[in-house]
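thought: fold this chain, then report.
action: predict
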Amino acid sequence: SSGINAAYGEFQTFQHYFKQINLRMVKSVQVFGRKKTATAVAYTKEGNGMIKVNGVPVDLVQPPTLRYKVLEPVLLLGKKRFEGVDIRVRCRGGGSTARIYAIRQAISKSLVAYYQKFVDETSKKEIKDILLSYDKTMLVADPRRCEPKKFGGPGARARYQKSYR
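observation:
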């Protein structure tokens, strides 16, 4: 009787172990997008076409004037390519415009990475070419940063006005 219980206990741990493995085998990629000091991390996995930014649907992203910038990858590539994936984006730092550009880059890069890892190389290349032909910053981060202020002037380059008398 005790041998049977021990075997059953081992079986349960084995079952638990396999459940954990199955949970880990979800088709997913995690990619980041950056603009100035804003960083957006996109977690893309198998799903039904849901895109959320900081827990809010992409259609309600603020500010409304820049909403189409976030939707550009979807509009360029078509909804068909986004149907099989769920994208969750977390964004921190930067101002509102920089965040929008970081989110947009994260969504684009995550879709390319997902297609490369789980679909096929030709469709990934197709997506990449479409995005790059539209705007390079969709996949490549902009390295420009704010230049620090120096002494002897009000800003980074401007100097105080000189007076002779």
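thought: worth noting. The longest helix spans residues 2-24.
final: tokens above.
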